[in-house]
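Researcher: For the record, we're logging two predictions in this thread. I'll number them. Prediction 1 follows.
Model: Prediction 1, sequence and structure:
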Amino acid sequence: MKKLSFALATAGMFALAACGETATETADEGAEAVEETEEATEDAMAEGEEMAEDAMAEGEEMAEDAMAEGDAMAEEAEEEMAEDAM
């Protein structure tokens, strides 16, 4: 009977150790997944910021071009008015 009790106790301890190891592995995998998610989030944010900066630069360029075109049209209109006045 003592041998059976010892065998059962030993088997129980091995089972607990296996559960503990599985829990540790699961926790490690979870931590790794969190790190990967954080890295992906940081990459996405950096890419989004870069895209926003590019869009702002393009918008500023377009605004400058539009202003220059508007100034040229206004100057042309002034010249035509001056010619008509003569």
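Researcher: Logged. Prediction 2.
Model: Prediction 2, sequence and structure:
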Amino acid sequence: MKPGQTSSRAKSLQLGSTSVTPTVSQQIGLQEFWKWMAGFALVILMIEWQVFHRKPLRIRMKAEG
């Protein structure tokens, strides 16, 4: 970074007599987990749709012969 530029990250903040420093959030793992669960639910939904929409074996056998 050039000497005249400022950083967008705060190192610490003084509020009255209290100093506040930023911390790293521990919720990163939870934010990534919902995507896997949504994908899993979509796969289950597609499997159920395939099973529901296929013809039963008795109807297929009558149509063939």
